[in-house]
Amino acid sequence: MIIQQFSLVGMIVCATWSQIGNAAFRQLLFPLLFLFLAVPFGESFIPPLMDFTADFATAAIHLTGIPVYREGNFLTLPTGNWSVVEACSGLRYLIASLTLGVLFAHLAYRHWTRKLLFLLASLIVPVAANGVRAYLIILIGHLSGMKLAVGVDHLIYGWLFFGLVMFLLFWIGSFFREDALQEPFSPEILPSPAVIAVPRPKINPAPLGILVFLALLPRWHVDYLEHLSRSSANPSSFVLTAPPPWSSVPLESDHWTPHYTGERIKFAEAYTPLQGTPPVTVFIAYYRNQTQGSSLITSGNTLVIPQDHRWGKTRESAHPLWVSVQTSPLPFTETLIRSDRQRRVVWDCYWVDRRWVSSPYAVKAWEAWSVLKGQGDGAAVVVFSTPFLSGNT
Known about the structure:
Blueprint (H helix, E strand, L loop, with lengths): L1 H26 L1 H6 L11 H19 L4 E3 L2 E4 L2 E4 L7 H18 L3 H32 L8 H23 L30 H27 L15 E3 L15 E8 L7 E8 L24 E5 L4 E5 L2 E11 L4 E10 L2 E3 L2 H13 L6 E9 L6
Antiparallel strand pairs: 1-2, 2-3, 4-5, 5-6, 6-12, 7-9, 8-9, 9-10, 10-11, 10-12
């Protein structure tokens, strides 16, 4: 979806360029490129921002002399528990600061050095300020016995602090502004052009028809590939047989399941090698003929959604974990999740175009390549999970 939105803005920019020419386009370059900031982006930055916020808050609390126990993004203080969720990542601060910083740098500065330095400050300051905000929120809650900064006032304090930080950033940046150094505008009076009669050119319809045909050819090719994809085999179910000594066991009544929607087929089963050992849950969601609302790679398809108050992520591997399965290496992403009653270790990876990948971006790229080859957009996510004790994985 984000690629489509960036492509749409790019089409608007290119269409404007083709209509107004190079000279006018250079004059409108900034406002046209500024349109790209209208696209909501940055979801991939949420996990590292959450980790930084948790690291900063934990270190600051330790320096204050307050004991704190951290497990992933969950912080435990003597007065209560805190968790750094997606809303605490500071992504909104970062996007707002970047947008305002780009506009201010363009209007206030003439030299690229000052523009780039202010943009760099617009990126660093909100990230650091969000860590300070999280620390102050936890400190207020701790000192008040969990009576303040635990409800709506939590959000109010955060936005007031962000507003103060932005005011200080632009106030300091205003001391170095250069917009007053702009040279005064002096319009140049040009002589009236001579009127020259130009004969009306003859229009040849052949080149125009060729251009129309070439413009429609990609669309026809895509329609043809979609027809091949929809007419190909589309399984409605499948059965997974566990090799010995593994055997299927019933799922627990309150078992954890990844949050994936819009799939063609969904499979969930638990297996164990011996009676009494913790079971391994296998979850598979298969997608084909993907459309909006029934696509594998979306922001809503994830292991744990922010709205789930029972489960939360405590750690996620930054690099894929390669595991050999029948001499074939599979790239898994390892994630630790927890609830009030249980902790689980989760391994997940994607299958697309007859290959295994761990990156969602690689999934979209291989899906597009598979469609161009006329083999459809079939893809699946495979998730293994099992309970574990602290210190054992």
